[in-house]
Each structure stands twice: as C-alpha cells, then as structure tokens.
Design brief:
The chain has 145 residues and is mainly alpha-helical. The chain has one domain. Helices cover 67% and strands 0% of the residues. The longest helix is centred in the last third of the chain and has 24 residues. The relative contact order is 0.11.
Length: 145
Amino acid sequence: MLQALVSLISGTLFGLGLAISGMIYPQKVTAFLNIIGPWDATLITVLGGATGLCLITFPWILRHKHPALATYFALPRQHHISKPLIIGSLLFGLGWGISGYCPGPAIARLSFPDRESILFVSCMLLGSWLQQRWARHQQLPAADD
C-alpha cells in the first residue's frame, strides 16, 4: 500500500512539473525543434534539470543495497546497443518530433483532454499492445522487460 501511495505522489509531482513547465503542450516541443522561426528553450532547461538531478542523486541512491520500498533496483539488464533499440529510438524520436507528444506528457495532458491527446494516448496504448504481441510471437523480450 505504501509503495502505491509513493508511486501516486511521485506520478502526481511528475505530472505537475510537466504542466508547470508547459511540456504537456506539444507546441513547446515543436517550438524547440523549430530552427527557422522563434525558438523556445523550455525543453532543454527541463531536460537539463532532470539530467543534472539524476547525475547528482543516482550514484548516491545506488550505494544502498535496495530501494526503500522494494527488494531490488529494477535496472536494465541489456547493456549492448541492439538493432531493435536503434529502430525503436528512431521511431520514438521521429514521432515525438513530428507530433510534439511524448508518452509522459501525453498522459499528463489527459488532465486537460482534447481530441488530439486522447487519440495520441489511444494509439500509444494500441502500439504498446501490438509490440508486446509481436515480441511474444518473435520470442523477443517485450519493451517492458
């Protein structure tokens, strides 16, 4: 129960941060990628803040034997760059750049729903489901493994 409560609080804080920074609006992302018109640096400041915080806290956190509310750290098991990783990363980046939507902000955007964000999240969930079915069929690890 405590783990679920901490997850809820963490997700709420993450969503609030996305909303306050304006990252729930796809126009912010596309304005960052706009090299011809007016440029919006908000995305780089959000990414820089998150990366800086992780660089400072991650080594300290990993010195512990396990997380406070779990028995082990859920870290990636795969340490090599594979073809599916490259293809998936390219598709993710292209989709994010074209649409301006990223999964986390898109879900947070549902707190102010519009047709576009509902359609995006629906397609994202469908794509995730299809990828898991395909991975099972191909005997590959699913994206959430």
